[in-house]
């Protein structure tokens, strides 16, 4: 999880870094694409003809080559009102300077003055107004143009001729200047007459009309002087239409280069001459920039002009051709640039949007990061807190477990001395010679020993409950009878305390009760014991059994004690809980009551009135179904034998234990020499236990002993005892390992092992059986139980031995025998049965047949059947002989030879030793 968090943190950091990088890049792009400050120049054109168009392209060209200039061109198409409106709108849009070519002298004056008054510099170009509110003027000297052309025509006419004039728009400054200059020039040539003068509007159509008017008046003239080339051409066309063009010459103004321009017309002879009126776009922008950037400038700026005639027209055209191509190329380039810029500005917009998006994304990521960090911090705190709680919980569990372990261990330790108290006491009670005083003292000892045993049992049971290892051992018994018996055990106690103890079973039908007798006993005992304890002298404890619906039984134990405080009532069934003033108890008695009641599918309740007493009620079903009932018979049997039969045998003679090797040797001799008594090996590190067992068993068995597991193993391998009794907890290898080792080795595998241990939990017993134990007895043990188990196990071995000696097959599943041992025994039986008739058939021959050496055979046979091979063969022969004597009429000698004895007298001796009678006694007794 921590790893995941780190990864997330790393990923987030990488993401933030990437986003920031991208943002910086985007911002850089945006920053880099930002233009330097541009001056915005508004250009107001009065007309939109070829001369104006050329001029406009020059304006744009200037803006292309100058990063700081931006032009906004508007054309009014010779309309004053429109031009005035356009000027206003340019001003409103925000221009830094106004370049204006006023249509007429007074038509747009006010609009221009408004702009000027707002502080916007105003440049007049080509035309002016009458107003003085302008910043600068740039253009030709129109008076000069008129004057020069008047002089030129007069000269061409050699001072004598007739001239007509087509004027530009009346009341416009060029028309005025060009007319006045022309008139003044001709004043110098009195024979050159202006025979007609008509006004037009600078355009072709207007000029044609003017020409028609003139022709209507006169066709006798030599020159047409028009104020611009367009109008001169219109005059030419008109004259041509009237077939009059051949004798008249035409002169115009503008001298435009390019196709259809004035220079070309001069070159082609359409016009006699033109006069250069420079469009001057570059000069206009240069002047504007001077004004805008605060540089020095002239208020009046004249553009240089010249007359164009057939003499210079061609050269001018050629010069211009290259320049025109360059202009066109530049125009095309600029269009490309424009296109790119439009595209670029689209990209800029996109990048700007992306930038904004990235900024938002960064903000979102930062917020997420912050929130994630806050969450992470919170999660860390919670994890830490959780870990602390878990640790605390683990510590509490460990503490509880260690407390329970401590109690359990103490209980184990108590069980051994308890064995040495309870069992001898029970045996002493049977001594009829015991004095009355001695018996009274023994009663006290027994009562206290029993109290101690119950305490130990409570603790052990509670551990079992804690571990969830408690199972019901069901049996069918009379509940009323048992409860009466259990309650009566308290009579001596209540008598002394002067407490009335009553039992009432009137409302109980005493039939069919199935339960775990031991656990029901514990429930009743704990409840009655508590009730008696808390009932003062003169009080009453009442035990009642009642029928309940649904085949349930109610066991009620009430007292007249001080009662239980209300706040404690729910807790009294919790482990270790003690109400005030109950010091001295373990606090687990009622917890066991509850657990056992619930294990029976029942429940326990309490009602109490402080100062009046308490009433504990247990309700349990009368029976338990299925699997458990099947176990009933077995379990009830076990329970009776295990714990209740305390019958003792006082007639023992103890053989003192001694660790000395010499003594051991004497014991070995004794073991080998005494075939009549089985040999028991007792392995226990507690000398008192060994002594006690020896005292119990030495009358019937030869006892050898070991104080630890290793020693026990060695002795078992050396002496091949008939049975081993071992404690579990011992120095060296413990009892379980000893058992497992004995069972693993073929020479000892058939030696029965009884584990006697204070470890009373089911799983501990299971562990014992898993290690090969043939029986498991818990301390404190009953001597009777121990004897019974020893006898049963030895008897089952004996039966096995007999089965080999006799004719019958080995039982299918002899007690505790492995399948390989069963196979061994069956082979041995067949070999002996088939060959015993040969007197020379002995141990060597059996070993050969079995594929074992003499020693191996001895060990194996001794281990499996507890008998030597020689004895086994002899007993087998005697057994068959006995059978022959009983069931045939063969002679004794014949039988003796038939079963393999080499002499009848030796047969008779052996028979007598084995059966305590002569072979002839069988015959005579038939
Ligand atoms: C262009 C034009 C030119 C002329 C000038 C006078 O609009 O008509 O032909 O020379 O204006 O302002």
From TrEMBL:
It is an enzyme of class 2 (transferase). PROSITE patterns: HIS_KIN, HTH_ARAC_FAMILY_2, RESPONSE_REGULATORY. Residues 409-624 form the Histidine kinase domain. The chain crosses the membrane at residues 349-368. It comes from the Bacteria. SUPFAM superfamilies: ATPase domain of HSP90 chaperone/DNA topoisomerase II/histidine kinase, CheY-like, Homeodomain-like, Homodimeric domain of signal transducing histidine kinase, Periplasmic binding protein-like I. PANTHER family: HYBRID SIGNAL TRANSDUCTION HISTIDINE KINASE C (PTHR43547:SF2), TWO-COMPONENT HISTIDINE KINASE (PTHR43547). It holds the Pfam family HTH_18. GO terms for molecular function: ATP binding; DNA-binding transcription factor activity; phosphorelay sensor kinase activity; sequence-specific DNA binding. This is histidine kinase.
């Amino acid at each position: 999880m921590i790893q995941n968090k780190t990864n997330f943190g790393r990923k987030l950091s990488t993401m933030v870094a990437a986003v920031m990088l991208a943002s910086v890049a985007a911002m850089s792009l945006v920053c880099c694409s930002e233009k330097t400050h541009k001056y915005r120049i508004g250009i107001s054109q009065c007309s939109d003809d070829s001369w104006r168009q050329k001029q406009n392209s020059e304006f744009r060209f200037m803006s292309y080559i100058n990063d700081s200039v931006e032009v906004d061109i508007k054309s009014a198409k010779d309309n004053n009102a429109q031009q005035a409106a356009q000027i206003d709108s340019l001003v409103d849009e925000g221009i830094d300077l106004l370049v204006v070519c006023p249509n007429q002298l007074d038509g747009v004056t006010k609009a221009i003055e408004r702009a000027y008054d707002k502080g916007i510099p105003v440049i007049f170009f080509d035309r002016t107004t009458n107003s003085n509110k302008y910043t600068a003027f740039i253009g030709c000297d129109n008076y000069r143009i008129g004057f020069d052309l008047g002089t030129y025509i007069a000269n061409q006419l050699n001072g004598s001729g007739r001239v007509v004039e087509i004027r530009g728009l009346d009341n416009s400054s060029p028309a005025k200047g060009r007319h006045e200059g022309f008139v003044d020039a001709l004043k110098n040539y009195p024979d050159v007459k202006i025979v007609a003068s008509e006004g037009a509007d600078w355009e072709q159509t207007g000029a044609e009309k003017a020409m028609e008017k003139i022709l209507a008046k006169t066709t006798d003239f030599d020159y047409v002087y028009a104020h611009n080339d367009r109008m001169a051409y219109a005059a030419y066309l008109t004259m041509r239409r009237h077939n009059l063009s051949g004798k008249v010459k035409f002169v115009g103004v503008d001298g435009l280069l390019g196709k259809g321009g004035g220079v070309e017309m001069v070159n082609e002879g359409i016009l006699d001459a033109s006069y250069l009126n420079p469009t001057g776009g570059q000069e206009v922008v240069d002047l504007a920039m001077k004004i805008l950037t605060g540089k020095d400038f002239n208020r009046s700026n004249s553009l240089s002009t010249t007359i164009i005639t057939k003499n210079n027209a061609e050269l001018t055209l050629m010069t211009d051709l290259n320049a025109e191509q360059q202009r066109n190329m530049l125009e095309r380039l600029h269009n490309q640039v424009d296109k790119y810029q439009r595209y670029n500005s689209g990209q800029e917009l996109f990048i700007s949007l992306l930038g904004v998006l990235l900024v938002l994304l960064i903000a979102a990521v930062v917020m997420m990061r912050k929130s994630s960090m806050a969450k992470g911090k919170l999660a860390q705190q919670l994890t830490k807190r959780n870990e602390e709680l878990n640790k605390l919980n683990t510590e509490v569990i460990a503490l509880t477990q260690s407390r329970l372990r401590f109690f359990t261990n103490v209980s184990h330790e108590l069980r051994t001395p308890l064995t040495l108290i309870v069992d001898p006491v029970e045996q002493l009670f049977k001594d009829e010679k015991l004095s009355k005083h001695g018996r009274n003292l023994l009663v006290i000892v027994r009562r206290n020993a029993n109290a101690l045993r119950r305490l130990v049992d409570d603790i052990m049971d509670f551990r079992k409950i804690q571990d969830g290892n408690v199972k019901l051992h069901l049996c069918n018994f009379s509940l009323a009878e048992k409860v009466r018996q259990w309650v009566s055990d308290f009579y001596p106690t209540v008598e002394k305390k002067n407490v009335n103890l009553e039992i009432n079973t009137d409302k109980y039908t005493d039939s069919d009760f199935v339960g775990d007798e031991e656990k029901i006993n514990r429930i009743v005992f704990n409840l009655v014991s508590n009730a008696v304890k808390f009932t003062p002298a003169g009080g009453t404890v009442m035990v009642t059994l009642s029928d309940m619906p649904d085949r349930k039984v109610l066991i009620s134990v009430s007292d007249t004690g001080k009662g239980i405080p209300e706040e404690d009532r729910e807790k009294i069934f919790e482990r270790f809980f003690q109400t005030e003033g109950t010091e001295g108890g373990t606090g687990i008695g009622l917890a066991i009551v509850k657990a056992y009641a619930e294990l029976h599918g029942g429940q326990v309740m309490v009602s109490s009135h402080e100062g009046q007493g308490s009433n504990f009620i247990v309700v349990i079903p009368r029976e338990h179904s299925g699997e458990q009932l099947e176990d009933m018979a077995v379990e009830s049997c076990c329970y009776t034998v295990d714990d209740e039969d305390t019958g003792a045998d006082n007639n023992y003679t103890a053989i003192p234990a001694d660790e000395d090797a010499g003594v051991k040797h004497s014991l070995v001799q004794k073991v080998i020499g005494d075939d009549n008594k089985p040999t028991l090996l007792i392995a226990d590190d507690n000398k008192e236990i060994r002594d006690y067992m020896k005292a119990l068993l030495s009358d019937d068995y030869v006892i050898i002993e070991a104080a630890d597991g290793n020693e026990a193993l060695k002795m078992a391998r050396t002496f091949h005892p008939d049975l081993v009794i071992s404690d579990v907890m011992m120095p060296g290898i413990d009892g379980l390992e000893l058992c497992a080792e004995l069972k693993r080795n073929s020479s000892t595998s058939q030696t029965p092992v009884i584990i006697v241990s204070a470890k009373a939990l089911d799983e501990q017993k299971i562990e014992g059986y898993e290690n090969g134990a043939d029986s498991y007895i818990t301390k404190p043990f009953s001597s009777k139980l121990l004897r019974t188990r020893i006898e049963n196990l030895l008897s089952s071995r004996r039966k096995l031995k007999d089965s080999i000696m006799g004719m019958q097959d080995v039982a299918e599943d002899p007690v505790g025998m492995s399948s390989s041992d069963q196979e061994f025994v069956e082979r041995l039986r067949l070999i002996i049965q088939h060959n015993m008739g040969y007197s020379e058939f002995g141990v060597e021959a059996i070993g050969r047949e079995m594929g074992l050496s003499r020693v191996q055979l001895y060990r194996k046979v001794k281990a499996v059947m507890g008998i030597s091979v020689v004895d086994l063969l002899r007993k087998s022969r005697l057994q068959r002989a006995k059978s022959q004597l009983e069931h045939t009429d063969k002679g004794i000698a014949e039988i003796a030879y038939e079963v393999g004895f080499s002499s009848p007298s030796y047969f008779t001796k052996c028979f007598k030793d084995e059966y305590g009678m002569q072979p002839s006694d069988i015959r005579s007794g038939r």
